[in-house]
Amino acid sequence: MSELKMEKKHFLSGDEAVAYAVKLCKPDVIAAYPITPQTVIVEKISEFVAAKEMDCQYLHVESEHSAMAASMGASLMGSRTFTATSSQGLLYMCEMLHYVSGSRFPIVMVNANRTVAAPWNIYGDHRDSLSQRDSGWIQIYVENAQEALDATIQAYKIAENSCVSLPVMVNLDGFVLTHTYELVDIPNQEMVDEFLPSFTTTNKLDFNNPKSLCFSASPEWQTEFRYQQYEAMEAAKKIINKADEEFGKIFGRYYGGMIEEYRCADADYALVAMGSVAGTTRLVVDKLREEGKKVGLVKLRSYRPFPKEYFQKLGRRVKAVGVIDRDISFGYEGAVYSDVKGALFHPGAQVKTINFIAGLSGRDITKEYLTEMYQKLEAIDKGQNIAEVQFTGLRWT
Amino acid sequence: MKPKVVREYKFPQTKEEMPFGPGSEAGVLIDVNSGWRTLMPIIDYGKCNKCLICWIFCPDGVISKENPQLEIDYDYCKGCGICAYECPKKAIAMVKEGEKVE
């Protein structure tokens, strides 16, 4: 990190870090509706607006559905737009999520991951955002408050790229990230301006060039529009990696784009994790490496688009892969596991796999649990029969 | 009053001609809507006194008052029947599409 960068360290929660990122991105319109554990984001932003540190329209809407509808309306006027939500709120805006992605509006939203009722609970897991897998949004998962800040800035760069023009959802774990404090670098405005130019688009309403937007498409044409979304999402794979590289050059922090590998080069056993648990897993990997175990971590940052090509290669070089899902798709297995497994078993792969359902509704994924997961990967590799879907820390079966 | 047609819509022939997402130049009418209609309104000019109630109520603005007699644009009338319902002179009949009109 160059000393010339002159970033300032602040003691911030994940939510506050996101608010600072949004401020630096200079959105024109913010639609806000509160929900725990996201509320601090829009509260902090409202303070910036009240203090005239931000020049934007701050809309108090009456629901999350309206928040996304208002964001879409703002975006179709060519505005850079931000909103944030969580859990039930995300589900309530579900209909509009599809409208936004299908109409190709590059809105950035931060979702504070929280489980969905019932049983009702405000704590973190990925059941909210994973249930919106097919909404056509890019989904990025972050590990800590610094990454939440950086990924939010990167999200605009990705979303507004003309080859992509898709909305981006940045996901940070409820409470574990949103409400815990850590030292965070807040980049200076000039550097962010250099990384993120002002938003221009032709996909907007314009008095001089009147348009109809968000129209219907008959069965004869719907497929072609869906193919456009498919292609944009495929293009986003490169853009996500490129945005991370460009970001790293300016700010000195690299996250690996879609994937970050940690001590995987010669690993026999790899755990795939999304979000904050990646941090704990690093410690466990270090500990097990000291004991001579060849273990590694694959931190999955981009869930959609999904880095299929990476896992196809991983399947040929490791012996066993475990996937931590803070989610369960009842009737099958964890959603992330299904995707990873589908890519791993590319022709030529002999890899064995286990799905660890863990961290549901804010239950801790401890170092002990993670150590146990690596032990199970080794056991299955050595021929032991282990059920494919493991509920970590389950009291009884 | 007939909707103003900026131009006839030319469907994309190549991938490059596809609009970027579901949007396009405004004022382009891709198709007339008459195919939706089951019942068509027929004005009995013997009863019509041109009070313009139907002209006001027509949700699609397809009744024109420029000529001596009111005229319905059957390309865009979708046959909702509001004009017939509102007409105080009962001068508009809703006739099943395809049935011969005297």
Any idea how many domains of chain A? 2
Question: What would you say the CATH architecture of the domain at 32-96 in chain B is?
Answer: 2-Layer Sandwich
- Unreliable runs of chain A: none
Structural class of chain A: alpha/beta
Quickly give the CATH architecture of the largest domain in chain A: 3-Layer(aba) Sandwich
Number of helices of chain A: 13
The CATH topology of the largest domain in chain A: Rossmann fold
CATH class of the domain at 32-96 in chain B: Alpha Beta
Q: What's the N-to-C terminus distance of chain A?
A: 50 Å
Q: Can you tell me the CATH class of the largest domain in chain A?
A: Alpha Beta
Which overall shape of chain A is indicated by the principal axes computed on the Cα atoms? globular
Order the strands across the largest sheet of chain A as they lie in space.
Answer: 3-2-4-5-7-6-13
Short description:
Chain A is an alpha/beta fold.
Structure commentary:
- The complex is a heterodimer of chains A (397) and B (102).
- By secondary structure, chain A is α/β, with parallel strands linked by helices.
- Chain A has helices at residues 14-25, 39-50, 64-75, 87-92, 94-102, 127-130, 145-159, 189-195, 219-251, 277-290, 308-317, 335-344, 367-381, and strands at residues 8-13, 29-32, 57-60, 81-85, 108-113, 138-141, 168-173, 181-186, 211-213, 259-262, 269-273, 295-300, 302-304, 320-325, 352-357, 389-391.
- The mean pLDDT of chain A is 96.
- Chain B has a domain at 32-96: Alpha-Beta Plaits, CATH 3.30.70.20.
- Chain B has a two-stranded antiparallel sheet.
- Chain A binds chain B through residues 102-104, 165, 202-203, 209-217, 224-225, 228, and chain B through 12, 18, 20-28.
- Strand 9 of chain A pairs antiparallel with strand 1 of chain B, so a sheet runs across the interface.
